[in-house]
Amino acid sequence: MSEAAFEEVSVLSSIYCGEGEFQLTQQSAQDGLLVQINSTVGGERGLDVRLLFHLHPCYPSCPPAVSVSSTGLSRTQCHDIRQKLLDRAAALPPEPMVHQLVEWLQQCVEVTENCRGCEEEEEEGREREKEEWTAVLSLDHIRSRSRYTGLLERWTQQLQLSGRLLLGRSILVILQGARPSIKEFCRLLRTVKVDVDSSGKKCKERMMKVLTESPASSPGGRGLQGFVVTNYKSLPELTAAFQEINMTDVYQQIRPSLRD
């Protein structure tokens, strides 16, 4: 080991002289030195971070290896901090650098903590996307019933949705499932030629309307299963169809939009 390395270890033991702050865990001419420094960082949170520096026999001509652990940070965050310290060490001149790296740890943790907040927001967003949603769509017309209903059923299967097609004076599609899947279903309706117009030419469902869209009121106890086509002849029959699947409240929301 170089004299500079031993001098640095001596200085570090003087700087980090609090109880449990510094420990020389290994000293070997063949394997080098293992220095453990326990530091409290992260401002008000006061995170305890343990740094283990492996000073190779050729140190400081080559940067140290670094290990990071903390009970207050996730494994991913510790890995991120370690990589930042290694990158910093590689950018420094070949001279004793452990103290600089320990001081720079504060900045690493602050950046990681900020990222953690972003990650938590992203995770919340992903969880919201997994929530069960209910949507009711209104279709303008169905002329090619076989083709149209076949596509609707196929899309619900592909998107892992449950659905019900209600055919009567108003044509309604009730969907339950993940919100992104419902949005994709709506996109397909507007962009794929699902029906034929009055002249018999294939056409898209440009007149589709989303009457209501909201989180399902009873996750895990969904009223729909698979894809079912139901015909109704009157508003009382339509009301009964919604009651059958425990969606009377949904029916009350869309009732003003329906044709009498």
What does this structure look like?
There is one protein chain. By secondary structure, the chain is an alpha+beta fold. The chain folds into 2 domains: 3-127, Ubiquitin Conjugating Enzyme, CATH 3.10.110; 131-257, 2-Layer Sandwich (Alpha-Beta Plaits). Helices cover 41% and strands 28% of the residues. It is built from 7 helices and 11 strands. The strands form 3 sheets. Strands 10-5-7-6-11 form a 5-stranded mixed sheet, with helices on both faces. Strands 1-2-3-4 form a 4-stranded antiparallel sheet. Strand 6 and strand 7 (171-178) form a beta hairpin. The longest helix is centred in the middle third of the chain and has 33 residues, at 98-130. It starts with a helix and ends in a 6-residue tail after the last helix.
Return the string of H and E elements.
Answer: HEEEEHHEHEEHEEEEHH
- Largest sheet: number of strands, sense, barrel closure: 5 strands, mixed
Distance between the termini: 91 Å
Q: Cα-atom Rg, whole angstroms?
A: 32 Å
Q: Report the oligomer.
A: single chain
How many helices in DSSP terms? 7
Helix amount, in percent?
A: 40-55%
Shape: rod-shaped
CATH class (first level) name of the largest domain: Alpha Beta
The count of β-strands is 11
User: How many independent structural domains?
Assistant: 2
Main β-sheet, spatial strand arrangement: 10-5-7-6-11
Mean pLDDT: 84
Low-confidence stretches: 218-222
InterPro entries: RWD_dom, RWDD3, UBQ-conjugating_enzyme/RWD
Main location: cytoplasm
Organism: Zoarces viviparus
Protein name: RWD domain-containing protein 3
